[in-house]
Amino acid sequence: MREREHVLQLENITMQFGGVVAVNNLSLEVNKGEIVALIGPNGAGKTTAFNVITGVYQPTNGQALFHDKVYLRNHPQGKMKKGYKGENGLLYTSEYKLEGQKTKEEEKQRDHYVFSNHVLAPTPDHITKMGIARTFQNIRLWKSMTVFDNVIIAKHMRAKHNVFSSTFRISRKEEARMREETEALLREQGLWQHRDALATGLPYGLQRRLEIARALATEPKLLLLDEPAAGMNPQETLELADFIHEIRDKHHLTILLIEHHMDLVMNISDRIYVLDFGSLIAQGLPSEIQKNQHVIDAYLGVVEDE
Ligand SMILES: Nc1ncnc2c1ncn2[C@@H]1O[C@H](COP(=O)(O)OP(=O)(O)OP(=O)(O)O)[C@@H](O)[C@H]1O
Questions:
Q1: Which burial class, exposed, middle or buried, applies to 107 when counting CB atoms under 10 A from its CB (0-12, 13-18, 19+)?
Q2: Number of domains in the chain
Q3: What distance in Å separates the CA atoms of residue 113 and residue 135, rounded to the nearest whole number?
Q4: Cβ of residue 204 lying under 6 Å from some atom of ligand 1
Q5: How many angstroms separate the Cα of 234 from the Cα of each of 189, 237, 241, 242, 263?
Q6: Which atom of ligand 1 is nearest to the CA of 47?
């Protein structure tokens, strides 16, 4: 069997807001080409996990790796050092000690975690350039811009220079290339005939498509979808499954998604992680998760199709 290629790994991620532990000691991995779902009841911490992965929030503790390279890391500091309610609060500090006799494996593990209090806090912009893109639970488009501009600006964000310098200084050739790629994306998403419309003027379903086109414009390796089926009827939800497979294959993506529509989740996911009150309560294949009594009690037993 081929070795798994890690795209994203979260290790011991805790996100605490004041006294609220929104995500508690979360570890997970997403491998190349996989479609992985993160599910759980309202308030379980799913969106917070996405916000940590994309640099919107700096986690209180833990680290994340993209293609096996640590790109964000933190440990409880300042006031939080006392008020920390999560687990493994010393793991990423030089205060971490291994008790008792150390095996080679434990030593290796320790070296992997401890970087002498070294904190890494990349900005969302940096993370987009690295190759992680997302969509939002509540669609967030640049409302006063046209459909075309929403996508081409995202392309500029992917370019090596920043939006402002690139707007004024990129070569004509590069600009032409970006326009061509934008056209291709809009055609692919069935949005080309709407290119001059304002983003907010589009019907809801097309706004979702535009959000995905804009995410794809940044040429991601990993795409995070936050409730892509929200507001869709059963027929649209069914079509969404095919659509997600299509974009995964066409754009060579790895996908992590949050979703409450269990039919969709069970249909498209290679693996599923289940959160409840910020903590991971189960992980496995869809067939395993469906049968897991803990998950049924915490979530599946009460889930309502939207
Ligand atoms: N910025 C914040 N400040 C304070 N508390 C927050 C913040 N963001 C999230 N929380 C809290 O963290 C917990 C997890 O919220 P989160 O939105 O991540 O859950 P979720 O699983 O995405 O829920 P849903 O399915 O309803 O979207 C909740 O208790 C929420 O109130």
A1: exposed
A2: 2
A3: 30
A4: no
A5: 20, 5, 11, 13, 10
A6: 22
200 lies in a domain?
yes
Clarify whether residues 26 and 97 are in a common domain: yes
CATH of the domain at 144: 3.40.50.300
In-domain check, residue 96: yes
ipTM: 0.97
Do 37 and 112 fall into the same domain? yes
Q: Which atom of ligand 1 is nearest to the CA of 278?
A: 14
pLDDT of residue 169: 61
272 and 289 in contact (C-beta within 8 Å)? yes
* Ligand 1 atom index nearest CA of 17: 4
- Domain shared by 194 and 297, yes or no: no
Q: How do residues 136-172 score in pLDDT, each as one tens digit?
A: 877 777 778 899 999 998 888 766 555 554 455 667 7
Q: Look up the domain containing 117 and give its range.
A: 1-122+222-229+254-306
Instruction: Indicate if the pLDDT at residue 104 is higher than 90.
Output: no
- Separation of 127 CA from ligand 1 center, angstroms? 22
